[in-house]
Amino acid sequence: MPRTARVEDKGAIGAPRGIRWGIVGPGGIAQKFARDLRVSDGGELRAVAGRDRMRAKDFADRFGGELVFDDVRALAEESTVDIVYVATPHSHHAGVVEILLGNGKPVLCEKPLTVNAGEARHLIGLARENGIFFMEAMWTRCLPVYRQVRRWLHEGRIGRCRSVDSSFCVRGNQDSDKRWLNPDLAGGGLLDLGVYNLAVTQLAIPSIPTRIQALAGMSATGVDEWLSVSLAYPEGAFARFACGFVAAGTNSLTIAGERGTIRIPDPFLSAQRAVCESNGEEITFEGRFLGEGFEFEINEAMRCLREGEVESPLIPLDDTLATQQTMDRIRGQIGLRYPFESGSPSSGGS
Known about the structure:
This protein is of the alpha/beta class. It folds into 2 domains: 10-140, Rossmann fold (3-Layer(aba) Sandwich); 141-291 and 311-334, Dihydrodipicolinate Reductase, domain 2 (2-Layer Sandwich), CATH 3.30.360. 31% of the residues lie in helices and 26% in strands. The protein is built from 9 helices and 15 strands. The protein has helices at 28-37, 53-63, 72-76, 93-102, 117-130, 144-154, 189-204, 295-307, 317-334, and strands at residues 3-9, 19-24, 43-49, 67-69, 83-86, 107-110, 134-137, 161-169, 211-218, 224-232, 238-244, 253-257, 260-264, 273-278, 281-287. It has a 9-stranded mixed β-sheet with strand order 1-15-14-13-12-8-11-10-9, with helices on one face. α5 runs antiparallel to α9. The longest helix has 18 residues, at 317-334. The radius of gyration is 20 Å and the shape is globular. The protein starts with a strand and ends in a 16-residue tail after the last helix. Mean pLDDT is 92; it is low at 1-15.
């Protein structure tokens, strides 16, 4: 039997100067974000913007925001807002973020950053050219568990990574008018679920796949209900993942190296536990949440602002762009192009 050890991270949070947040898109995911602002490292809700002013006001009243807007441009020009979290459907991310960055406002944007790599490349260029903080809200990669996974990988604890295997399959809402199956809102399993698999794979194998094979089941609305993808990387590494809305899965993740494995149990995207087995030793890491898990990406964004960083090392914009490019290539293989896109499915950045 392997020797065992246990490491625990209680997620202790200090109390530096406050950061005033704006939120665009007062929906369900924004509610989770606003709840975790209350346990964050000095974050506070200042303003809310939404197309429906009354809905935005109800959100602000519930979570303590003082300002309400029905125009994102007004929020972008509000000097008392330090940073904006964008939580609209991802079909609308590019337009909203461009307005915010164009007004010099730092942005934390929900995943996926945009619908395609062309949009992502444009926004990343805009942020970098003007020295404005910009980060994809890939909360999974900010969790204590994945910070520890990063350390294990950098220490070479499992040797060179050879494979990543994961799934993110749920029994989702089958209403074709809802976002998941709505092509006008860039629906489908890849952009909503598979982006998590790819983002964590990018952490373990930080390169661009040389070959991709994708198989999908398409809904009556024309988006992917389920998806199975194999990816080959340089130096013999490979990855596999499945995602979709048609049935629940064993949503765990395994990173295998030449000398060991890192296993993250279901659900890997919100993991509070990871096990590393290498050289006859098994180490269990536990990283607790103070809220629902969003506090860690909030804290990372605020750390960057306080320290004058314009990109997060936990979610570099180059990693975000690489993931977007891979998703474009997968969509090209399964023939998924959204009604509002021009050109082929993979024209955004293959």
